[in-house]
Specification:
By secondary structure, this protein is α/β, with parallel strands linked by helices. It contains 20 helices and 17 strands. GO terms for molecular function: oxidoreductase activity.
Length: 389
Amino acid sequence: MFETLQRSLKLTGIVVGSVLVLTGCSGCIDEAAERDARIMKKARAATGGEMTAEKKDSESGCLKSFFTQSLHHTGEGMRYWYEEAGGFMDITGIPYAQLDCKNCHIQSCDKCHVREEGKQKVLSREKARDMKTCMPCHGREGLTFKFDAAKGQTGVHMAADMACADCHFGDDVHGDGQFRQSMRAPGAVAMTCEKCHVDQVRESPAFDPETAAHAAHGDKLACQACHVSNTTACMNCHFNRFLETGQRKGNFIPMKEWLLLINHEGKVTSGSAMTLVYDQKKFIAYVPYYTHSVMPEGRKCDDCHQNKAVQLLEKGEKVPVMAFRDGKVVPWKGVVPVIPDQLDFVYLDKTDAGWVPLSDDTKETVQFAEYGEPLTPDQLRMLAEDVSE
């Protein structure tokens, strides 16, 4: 079969176990030849010499040593933060391996690269670049694009007809052979705003360090703190209903009205939160999160400094980030600093009649995942300063 595929697509490659490892996929990206050389170098190192058709033991082959270490294959980030001390498994008691979350993990190249031509299946780099291939697993980004289109606020990259693969290719997709616990671990995702807008890996509008906002904030802020419009969040995941029905749709509440400010790797960046309910128990995870809703111009000063949320926090009052009034969820609008004890989220039960607030007023379990940290008192004081002059 692989020989037929190779002839039909004019590909060169080697067979490792039941996987065709491509060595000549030129055209996927401009740097394909260099990337292929890196892949084959790692593959040869893993097998102790030349790769040949006789090396068919996948336990020692390229797939085992290279792609299977990637987060696309392992899904380790989801498992790690769910099962770690203080994670949601502390409430459910259900191991990650018993949940269907793991079913998104990519077991072979076929998941992204194989398409049907008549009655035949062929390998396709075009399918891997098609955003429709990404969205079934990266559903939150799919929600982002739907929300933005409905509001006429399409992000600058989407408006330019860019696809996921224009930024995420090579090691971002296939891994670099190193096992990591999270996509936020150093080196897990190579692409950054600076790669294009400073280093010009792709020709892009150049970053200007002399603009007022850039000069004022320096290295204190990540780009997305100012250039992401708001955050796509999946709130109040009703885990009991999810387990009973096997369905996500209808068992959580998607929203995109606010953006959280959270610390990550020494900078303030855009963040999100996810709330969950299981057996009347409440849980919230705060994370640094990059929603692909990018504004070409950054925020105005008063979008963050002395905004309504900051004023409430300064007075010691809570910010109703997610409220419930007259039978409807009412989300906060605007930027909210992450001060966990002062952010208020309603927790709801899913009944046959719809969503109703939990009667139990027990405090929720709070997790800071993906190496995120709350803002400090000093940072809150800076946000409370008058910067209008």
